[in-house]
Amino acid sequence: MGRQGGPTTATGSEVVARDDLGPTVAALTADELDQSRRRRLLGRLVDQVRGSRPGNLFRPRAAIRWLTDTVAEVAPHVPVRDRETLLRHFDGLDGDALADRLIRNAVRATAGVGAAGGGVAAVEWVVTPTLLSAPVLLAAETVAVVAIELKLIGELHEAYGVRLPGGTSQRAVTLVRSWAAQRGVNPLLPGVGVGAVLGTAARKELRERLLRRFGRNLTTLGPFLTGAAVAGFLNGRATRGLGERIREDLRNGPPALGS
What we know:
Blueprint: H1 22-28, H2 35-51, H3 60-74, H4 83-89, H5 95-124, H6 134-159, H7 168-181, H8 200-216, H9 224-252
Helix pairs in contact: 1-2, 2-5, 2-6, 3-6, 3-8, 5-6, 5-9, 6-7, 6-9, 7-8
């Protein structure tokens, strides 16, 4: 989905639109990134977040409002492979075996983002005034981790033959709702198909989930490698838990979100 004058957080030609974050976020969701490439991409995302003038991210309400809007904007850019592509890419693995591989890869990716965030923090902290950019790093890391988990949710549904309804934008809304609820999607639920929107209740749930994730990512700012190691562990553990919950829902028949 190309940029068409996407929303920005400030005016002026130098300001980065949220849509411009999409390609960088999408690149960070790739299965097999070496850590140097992941760190470069996360560093680019930090610069882009800073360029978007996100407001005062030291203020929790402002930070979560920006994260909620940004996740909604970048979600359509998250590349979700369909079932046929997954079967080809993973040499015919299907069902639980395919789900295992998808969860494993996503855990590795989000753990890698946590570790890369620690590396970026180490660079950013070389000069004391750049401590002011710490919330920008946390915001960038949070968006990257959520994007990886959105991709995991979409591909787990494909692995179990549950194709999400609607076009790219509508599927993105459905994935965001699923991530916020930490549950599988019922594709027959009224309102989840064409024309569904991220309503007030869903946005509240998303804000609360993002607040917890944003707080957990504070570990990135620990002392250099210690912070990176802890952040990587916590990211990976959270992603594994999410993947297992979604898989269990898909095995048993997913509940209606919001029920």
